[in-house]
Amino acid sequence: MSVMLTLILVVQMLSALAxxxxxxxxxxxxxxxxxxxxxxxxxxxxxxxxxxxxxSRTTAVLAGVFFVCTLMLAYxxxxxxxxxxxxxxxxAVVAPAAPxxxxxxxxxxxxxxxxxxxxxxxxxxxx
Length: 127
Fold this sequence. Notes:
The chain is about 50% helix and about 0% strand. By secondary structure, it is mostly helical. The chain has a domain of about 35 residues. The mean pLDDT is about 75.
């Protein structure tokens, strides 16, 4: 299946590049009007009118190939079996954080945990 998808994608890319090249080669409809007044050569590699028919038909065929390849890629992308769970199920498992003891909990901003207090009386210094 992967080889077929790769082949379809290659055909689609080649047809897209060929279409871009053929569209850039073609001249617009206004180019014939300038040639009628003597401003340029209307002759081309394929003759005065043969080039437009050949290039436009080839562009139409390549557009059809591109369209069919796009539809086939869309169909095959939806035809893949969907996993029964969420996308996040395949994510890496993160280890839980270490517990925070009471002495460091009072240092965290916004933490209202009471500070650890020692109610014992300190010993008197030795003389």
